[in-house]
Design a protein that fits this description.
With 190 residues, the chain is α/β, with parallel strands linked by helices. The protein has a single domain, classed as Flavodoxin domain (Rossmann fold, 3-Layer(aba) Sandwich). Helix 1 packs across helix 5. The longest helix has 20 residues. It starts with a strand and ends with a helix. 39% of the residues are buried. The structure holds flavin mononucleotide. The site of flavin mononucleotide has 17 residues, from helix 1.
Length: 190
């Protein structure tokens, strides 16, 4: 049995999906690839894998367009087990249901075996926070659920779609988010 984790963030490095891939691979210790803005048009052969986990951000309530295009070209064997981890910027993880549903529908369309996944809200800045020891507590629920999901993946078991949010109080998350938007806007203005 071979397992592959796909990072579907368009960012080349330091994406929040990258932080999630690293957490997952701590348990799975398996192959990983990135489908990003550089390679999404390539024909990628994944026929060696029996299990594939898509880890990607929610963009406009959907799959980022580069990943969507890549999905149509991927060579995946029928009946491959598919899991997904979708992260989003809004603190309410319910937004990620769209992303998980799209991967489930893609699996049905391609005769793949969708086995479930995790939808995670409040992931803006996750990669940075994970590099700061004092802020590690913010991903406590993510760590717990990724460990749980890993066990299901290792046993090839179906996993009920599960929705969680980072452990940051909503008001603080929104406050920091607003500061960061404004800082980015200042950069554009200057
Ligand atoms: C173009 C764009 C569209 C986005 N759309 C949504 C959205 O619909 N809902 C949401 O909660 N977050 C949205 N976000 C926020 C991202 O999902 C969030 O920042 C995510 O953590 C980025 O993950 P990454 O670093 O792995 O790329 C969007 C971000 C961008 C750049």
């Amino acid at each position: 049995m071979k397992t592959l984790i796909i990072n579907g963030s368009p960012k080349i490095k330091n994406s929040n999906s990258e932080a999630l891939v690293n957490k997952l691979n701590h348990y799975l210790n398996t192959d990983t690839i990135q489908i990003n803005i550089k390679n999404y048009k390539e024909n990628i052969d994944l026929s060696n894998y029996n299990t594939i986990i898509f880890v990607f951000p929610l963009y406009v309530d959907g799959i980022p367009s580069h990943l969507l295009e890549a999905l149509t070209n991927l060579n995946i064997n029928e009946s491959t087990n598919i899991y997904a981890i979708v992260n989003c910027g809004f603190p309410e993880s319910a937004h990620t249901k769209q992303g998980l549903d799209l991967i489930r529908n893609y699996s049905i369309h391609r005769n793949l075996n969708y086995k479930g996944g995790l939808g995670i809200g409040g992931c803006g800045g996750l990669n940075g926070m994970n590099k700061n020891k004092l802020l590690k507590f913010t991903s406590k629920s993510i760590d717990k659920n990724i460990e749980e999901l890993s066990e299901f993946i290792l046993n090839n078991d179906p996993y009920d779609n599960t929705y969680i949010t980072t452990n940051i109080p909503n008001s603080i998350y929104r406050y920091i988010g607003n500061l960061s938007w404004k800082k980015d806007l200042d950069k554009i203005d200057s």
